[in-house]
Design brief:
With 224 residues, the chain is of the alpha+beta class. Helices cover 45% and strands 20% of the residues. It has helices at residues 8-14, 16-36, 56-70, 97-107, 118-124, 179-217, and strands at 2-5, 39-44, 48-53, 78-82, 88-90, 93-95, 114-117, 132-138, 147-152.
């Protein structure tokens, strides 16, 4: 689980005393809830931290209860992201691709939200008291395959809209059309235009024949 105070640097510059109170609440809440749910606070970066759990279910409950505390007065602007995967410890810190992906998922969230990966969702999907809504697939930078991300939608948890999500996504490459495809499209368009002109000419010829027949039948009929 990644937990991050949103905009902490800006708050520190403007409301130093208030920020200290919020920062203390953030650390106390994380430390208390992680310990209560059989987890461990591993990497602590000051205004953010990484936590590990022995159980995916415990991680979800920890995130939900922590966020419910953060949104109570005094409000702490926090976003949370969770993922399930392998990692390893080195010199007291935690590393691995799953850690990086958890960071990506957390960073795309908004204040009050809890986002989780599909892998974690598959583990806890039978928990009837957890409401999980899909936010479709996302292509993260430096991540090979698209990842489906879910949002916890229980009462009191902020559910982000797709337009609000921001992260280090892959850049969309412009679509390049080959010369062969351009030539094929040109041939098709030319054929369609030719058919239209042919149909129009056939229609004009038919009208002329009808007019000629009418004149033959009634020679005194004025020309149109």
């Amino acid at each position: 689980m990644f937990a991050d105070i949103v905009g902490d640097t800006a708050m520190m510059q403007t409301y130093e005393r208030k920020d200290s109170t919020l920062f203390d609440k953030f650390l106390k809440t994380i430390n208390d809830q992680v310990e209560r749910h059989n987890g461990r606070v591993v990497n602590n970066y000051g205004d953010s931290c990484v936590c590990t759990f022995d159980s995916a279910v415990y991680a979800i409950y920890c995130a939900k209860e922590s966020q419910s505390i953060f949104i109570s007065e005094p409000i702490v602007l926090v976003r949370l992201g969770l993922h399930s995967g392998d990692f390893f410890y080195k010199e007291g810190n935690v590393f691995g691709d799953s850690v990086n992906l958890t960071s990506r998922i957390e960073s795309m969230g908004i204040v009050g939200s809890i986002l989780i990966s599909k892998r974690l969702r598959d583990v806890v999907k039978n928990q009837s008291n957890q409401i999980l809504n899909s936010l479709i697939l996302f292509e993260f930078k430096n991540v090979e395959e698209p990842i489906e991300v879910f949002t916890l939608a229980n009462e009191g948890i902020v559910v982000p809209k797709e337009k609000d999500l921001k992260s280090k996504f892959k850049e969309k490459k412009p679509v390049r059309i080959s010369n062969q495809l351009v030539g094929f499209i040109g041939i098709v368009l030319t054929s369609i235009i030719g058919i239209i002109f042919w149909q129009q000419s056939q229609s004009s010829n038919k009208e002329m024949l009808i007019t000629a027949d009418s004149l033959l039948e009634s020679p005194n009929t004025p020309l149109p």
